[in-house]
Design brief:
Helix content: 10-25%
Structural class: mainly beta
Number of helices: 2
Bound molecules: zinc ion
Radius of gyration: 17 Å
Low-confidence stretches: none
Mean pLDDT: 85
Number of strands: 8
Distance between the termini: 37 Å
Order of helices and strands: EEEEHEHEEE
Length: 123
């Protein structure tokens, strides 16, 4: 993250996707020089364009509040629950075809490299 200088975020939150954006991440931290809270939202639009919002002070706080309900999990949380939680870090998707009442359904999972798996969508 960047404010008066470049610094590492205190925590990074993974946000749920919405209609336009996926891979949404909100990083929060405090600038080591001026001490202001800084929040940075990075999200990828469906057409590949990256939307990046970086704000500080009261605006950073407002951005955090706006995103609060969309938080799925945070980096810190993941580090604690490493091997028994939701997939985190670099993820890959797998699709499984299952038959329910004679109809084929596709279940989409997000997987990580630690054996965690999460059902994302079933079509
Ligand atoms: Zn600063």
């Amino acid at each position: 993250m960047r404010h008066c200088c470049k610094f590492k975020p205190d925590d990074t939150y993974y946000l749920s996707e919405n209609d336009l954006y996926s891979s949404r991440r909100l990083s929060v931290g405090f600038c080591p020089i001026c001490g202001k809270p800084v929040a940075e939202l990075v999200e990828y639009r469906f057409d590949g364009i990256i939307n990046r919002i970086s704000v500080s002070g009261v605006q950073a706080n407002n951005l955090m509040l706006e995103c609060k309900d969309e938080i799925i999990y945070s980096m810190k949380e993941c580090n604690y629950l490493r091997f028994k939680s939701k997939p985190y870090g670099w993820k890959y998707g797998i699709n499984k075809v299952v038959k329910i009442n004679g109809k084929e359904k596709i279940k989409q999972y997000a997987c990580d490299f630690y054996g965690n798996k999460e059902l994302i969508k079933s079509v």
